[in-house]
Specification:
Elements: E1 12-18, H1 22-33, E2 37-44, H2 51-64, E3 72-74, H3 88-91, H4 113-123, E4 128-132, H5 137-145, E5 153-159, H6 174-178, H7 180-187, E6 193-196, H8 198-201, E7 205-206, H9 208-215, H10 220-240, E8 245-246, H11 248-257, E9 262-267, E10 269-271, E11 282-284, E12 296-302, H12 304-322
Parallel strand pairs: 1-2, 1-4, 2-3, 4-5, 5-6, 6-12
Antiparallel strand pairs: 7-8, 9-12, 10-11
Bound molecules: alpha-D-ribofuranose and calcium ion (CA).
Length: 323
């Protein structure tokens, strides 16, 4: 299956940096099964849960997918400056509560995520697209540690921020809030950047009927995804009053392969790293009043039906592969 409706030529080579996390799991599944994506590797970072738990969850997800061909490396356990803030209220004690997952895959890289990303970029015959779906700690450290490799990055398509939406505070989205200094480095890097923020990802929803249908499925992957997303939807109902599961990170992967699944505007985005009430805010200059040149393509609207259909295609394909 392909994400893009007009895919031609070679698959898009990407690296995912994530903090699994229920929606990170769906992002990994989407990238793994799409034939218009070449998933070169996964790195993990502390965010939704501790670095130890997000790494363990990534290993369990790769076991579930039998994705022995996808290398994995562990990254930072703490943000650049601030103490770690996790989202246990959303993703649970394990960071992926709601179902029993297989034993974690034993094989993983001995490299730190930052060095793993450098190694992958150095060895690739084409530039790679980075898809961060957690706090940007690893990505910021990579930018500082390997400036000579920045030209090997095709684009960064990140899940984070929001023009008019927030979640972890009234001002900030979680991934940016956890490490605003790292996000500031990424947004100031000058690298080609797409921001897939809450304005679109809060609408990248599977509703409660969708989740119930997955739970009722006899597909080995659909059933477990249904149970996991039922947990996730439960916390979203409790915390945000939402009726369903917002698959934030899966949309970032989809946008990397099919930018037309959203509509975007080139805007200047600044990251607030100070402020008692606003730290972590992505400040998007909608009307160009700052005079600053745009530094990001910011997703503003989403084809929600196309995204929902894509999600069900992903789970169905994985059911077939993992039977
Ligand atoms: O705000 C949503 C983002 O924070 C998602 O990436 C979710 O997995 C958490 O990391
Ligand atoms: Ca995430």
């Amino acid at each position: 299956m392909t994400i893009s409706t007009a895919h031609t030529g070679k698959p898009l080579p990407i690296l995912i940096d994530c903090d699994p996390g229920h929606d990170d799991m769906v992002a990994i599944m989407t990238a793994y099964v799409a034939t218009d994506i070449d998933l070169r590797g996964i790195t993990t970072v502390a965010g939704n849960q501790t670095g130890e738990k997000t790494f363990l969850n990534a290993r369990r997800i790769l076991s579930l997918l039998k994705a022995d061909d996808v290398p994995l490396a562990r990254g930072c356990d703490v943000p650049l400056v601030r103490p770690l803030h996790i989202a246990e209220n959303i993703h649970g004690d394990s960071g992926l509560d709601g179902a029993d997952l297989p034993e974690p895959r034993e094989a993983y890289s001995s490299l730190h995520a930052v060095d793993f990303i450098a190694d992958q970029l150095s060895r690739s015959d084409t530039p790679l697209t980075l898809v961060p779906t957690g706090p940007l700690t690893n990505i910021a450290l990579f930018i500082r540690r390997y400036p000579e490799l920045l030209s090997r990055i095709e684009r960064i398509v990140l899940m984070g921020g929001g023009v008019s939406e927030s979640n972890v505070t009234p001002a900030a989205e979680f991934n940016i809030f956890v490490d605003p200094e790292a996000a500031d480095i990424v947004f100031r890097s000058g690298l080609p950047l797409t921001m897939v923020g809450l304005d679109v990802t809060n609408r990248a929803m599977l509703n409660l009927d969708d989740i119930a249908s997955l739970q009722a499925s006899d597909g080995p992957v659909s059933h477990i995804v249904g149970d996991l997303l039922a947990f996730f939807a439960g916390t979203y109902k409790k915390v945000f009053g939402m009726a369903g599961a917002a698959l934030h990170d899966a949309l970032a992967v989809a946008v990397a392969a099919a930018p037309d699944i959203v509509t975007a505007r080139d805007l200047h985005v600044a990251v607030e790293t100070k402020g008692d009430h606003t730290v972590g805010r992505t400040v998007a200059d909608l009307y160009g009043v700052t005079g600053n040149a745009p530094n990001a393509s910011v997703a503003m609207d989403i084809d929600t039906n196309r995204f929902r259909s894509l999600m069900f295609s992903v789970f169905s394909e994985l059911d077939t592969r993992c039977r």
